[in-house]
Write a structure and sequence with these properties.
Blueprint lengths: L1 H13 L3 H16 L21 H9 L11 H17 L10 H12 L4 H19 L6 H75 L1 H30 L13 H10 L4 E6 L8 H21 L5 E7 L3 E9 L13 H13 L3 E6 L3 E9 L2
Helix pairs in contact: 3-4, 4-5, 5-7, 7-8, 7-10, 7-11, 9-10, 10-11
């Protein structure tokens, strides 16, 4: 209830801007400086007998408040004006109005917004000189009182300094978070581009190479291959267009790719001349998360692309198993003649990107060789 009432006020206050905010603060402090009951409740370091308040005293009281309108836009002039007004007010022995608290505010502001070290030396020199003059004029204050007041001013300055450090830390964390977000987005875009481009371009290269050999002996089959190249290129353009729409903000949903299209993906690879077997156990749950469905598709896509590149023409088996709580997908291809059983294991941008994609949805991915060939296996949770 309280938060609901306070939030609109805070929103209104933040929308005013710092100059307006500080102007309101300065006016409120100036009004309190001469309010009944507060006019004699300010800071009195001199402890002189007070003279009657006159026009000069009122001007000095206002001079300790109104310059605070500049405390964040021009902190150094603000500090100089308020300190000068406070010192003069004390030396002339006017009643200690509440406006003298402006000194504590401006010292906090100095710690929060001023970084020049010479100000510390200058401030200490001014305070020592001020105390010497007060003592010479007969102030009854003892050195302990001067030290206590000095410590109070140091606390105000230190509070501002701490606030400046805290804000700098918050800003550094914000910048770091933004840089991490940019890096993660670049990695995501790189994965999507790799998955889309590599798969289709690999298929087109294989199909075009095959068509070259078929033109002299089987022109009809060569034509079929050229048609398949065109279809593959159009699919690549469609997926790239969808990806670019996501990046431009034209679409708010991810690329609409799911395990429903794995059959089509397998047919595309078969049309490129790769013998692929596909088996599925269980039915896909209707509430399968989009991220999991896309990760399954990309695992199959990347594994088939690698099979076409590294073991063209060799048997490849895709297995998809829907269990109650997870999906297991594996792609195994026979080892091409002359290929090492240890070379390229788990390397490359594709498998690295797959691991990141699968891990992002809480799954795991492995890539290994056995006596017969190479297998990529992933397990992804459904819950």
């Amino acid at each position: 209830m309280v938060r609901r009432a306070v939030d609109p006020v805070l929103t209104w206050w933040r929308a005013l801007g710092i100059l307006t905010q500080d102007g309101i603060f300065a006016l409120v402090l100036a009004a309190l400086a001469f309010a009944p009951g507060l006019i004699d409740n300010g800071t009195d370091l001199a402890e002189f007998p007070h003279r009657p308040l006159d026009a000069l005293g009122i001007a000095l009281g206002l001079a300790q408040c109104l310059p605070l309108v500049l405390r964040r836009t021009a902190p150094l002039p603000c500090l100089a004006l308020v300190v000068a007004a406070f010192v003069t007010d004390q030396l002339l022995a006017y009643p200690p109005g509440f406006g003298s608290e402006g000194l504590l505010v401006v010292l906090y502001t100095a710690g929060a917004y001023l970084t020049a070290r010479w100000l510390l030396v200058a401030g200490l020199a001014v305070y020592v000189a001020f105390c010497v003059v007060l003592h010479g004029m007969g102030s009854p204050e003892q050195p302990a009182q001067y030290v206590t007041f000095f410590l109070m001013t140091v606390v105000c300055w230190a509070a501002g300094r701490w606030m400046r450090s805290w804000r700098a830390g918050v800003e550094a964390r914000r910048v770091h978070s933004a840089e991490l977000a940019v890096a993660e987005e670049r990695a995501r875009i790189a994965r999507e581009l790799h998955d889309v481009v590599t798969h289709h371009v690999t298929a087109m290269v294989v199909q075009s190479d095959a068509a070259q050999f078929l033109i002299p002996t089987a022109p009809d089959r060569a034509v079929d291959g050229l048609v398949a190249i065109g279809d593959t290129g159009r699919r690549a353009l469609a997926e790239l267009r969808t990806l670019l729409d996501v990046l431009d903000g034209a679409r708010s949903t991810p690329v609409s790719t799911s395990t429903d299209t794995i059959d089509e993906l397998v047919d595309q690879v078969r049309s490129a001349g790769q013998p692929v077997e596909f088996t599925q156990r269980g039915d896909r749950p209707s509430d399968t998360p989009d991220g999991v469905a896309l990760a399954v598709y990309r695992v199959v896509q990347e594994a088939l692309t690698n099979a076409v590149k590294h073991a063209p023409g060799h048997r490849t088996v895709v297995r998809l198993h829907y269990a109650e709580d997870d999906i297991t997908v594996s792609v195994h291809n026979d080892l091409a003649a002359g290929r090492s059983r240890t070379a390229d294991l788990g390397g490359g941008r594709g498998l690295t990107g797959l691991r990141a994609r699968v891990a992002a949805v809480g799954g795991s991915l492995s890539a290994s060789r056995d006596a017969d060939g190479f297998e990529v296996r992933a397990c992804l949770p459904l819950r």
